[in-house]
Amino acid sequence: YNLLIDAGIKKGMHILDIGCGRGDVSFLLADMVGIEGSVLGLDLDDNALEIARKHASDHVLTNVDFIKSDLNELSIDNRQFDAIVGRRVLMYLPDPRRVISELSAMLKIGGIMIFQESDSTLSSKSIVPMPLHKQVDKWIWDTVEREGGNIHIGFDLWSLLTQKGLIIEKLQAEAVVQTPDKPLPRAMIVKLMLPRIIKTGVATENEIDINTLEDRLTEERENTNAIYIGEIVFLACARKIG
C-alpha cells in the first residue's frame, strides 16, 4: 500500500493491473482511486478471474472490472491509463521488454508504470545455518526457473524499463525478513506449489513430506532463534514522458 502511494497512485486515476490473478492488488487499487477512478485487471487464468469477479460482485465494487487477456498478445481497445501496475508478472514473460513497450503505448503522457518483482539472487541468507529453510526456498525457486521464470528479474528491471519515452523515477529493493516470532508462510507456499514442484522434477512428494514440513520449519526456526532473509523484492517506477 505504502509503495503504491509513494509511486503516485491517488484518487481519480484509471489503472491497468496486469497479471491480476484473483484481484488482490486490483481491489487495493480500486480503494485507492475511489469511485472517481477505475481499475481494469487482466489475467489469463479463468479460475482466478472468476474468483475476482465474484469478490467484486459480492462487495458491490463498481469501479473495478476484469477481462481475460494474454500479455504476450495484448488485445485491449484504445483506452489510455494513468498508471499500469504489475506484481510478480514480468518474471514469467518470455519477452518482457516487448510487453513493456506495448504497455507504454497504453499509458497517458505523464502516466506511471509500477512493477513489483521477487528475486532470488540475494535470498536464503542467515548468519547461522538453516538448511531446511534454504532447501525449501530452493524447491520454490528451482520450480519457477524450470517453468521458464526469470529468478533474477529484479536485477533486470532497470534495463527493461530503460526504453524510449520512459524515465525511471524509482528503483529500490527490500528484503523479506523472517524473525523467530514472525515466520514466513513457506509450508503453505510449498503446499500450493506441490503439483508444480513434482511435475518439474524438482523434488518428490516423499522428499518434501508436506504433512510434517511446517513442524520441521518451526523446529529449525526455534532452535536457531535467528533472522532469515527469504527473498528480495524489487520495486520499479517509470514515468512516460513522450
Secondary structure elements and their pairing?
Blueprint: H1 2-7, E1 14-18, H2 24-33, E2 38-43, H3 46-58, E3 64-68, E4 81-87, H4 96-104, E5 107-119, E6 125-126, H5 131-146, H6 157-161, E7 166-178, H7 186-199, H8 205-208, H9 210-224, E8 228-240
Structural class category = alpha/beta
Mean pLDDT, to the nearest integer, reads 94
Outline the biggest β-sheet: 8 strands, mixed
What is the number of E strands? 8
The shape is: globular
Q: Give the DSSP E fraction (strand runs of 2 or more residues).
A: 25-35%
Distance between the termini: 28 Å
Summarize the helix and strand pattern as letters: HEHEHEEHEEHHEHHHE
Helical coverage, percent range: 25-40%
Gyration radius over CA: 19 Å
Structure annotation, total helices: 9
Spans where pLDDT lies below 50 across 5 or more residues: none
Descriptive labels:
242 residues, alpha/beta, eight-stranded mixed β-sheet, 9 helices, 38% helix
How would you summarize this macromolecular structure in one to three sentences?
The chain has 242 residues and is α/β, with parallel strands linked by helices.
Give a written overview of the molecule.
With about 240 residues, this protein is of the alpha/beta class. Helices cover about 40% and strands about 25% of the residues. It is built from nine helices and eight strands. Strands 1, 2, 3, 4, 5, 6, 7 and 8 form an eight-stranded mixed beta sheet that branches. Helix 2 links the parallel strand 1 and strand 2. Helix 7 packs across helix 9. The longest helix is centred in the middle third of the chain and has 16 residues. The mean pLDDT is about 95.
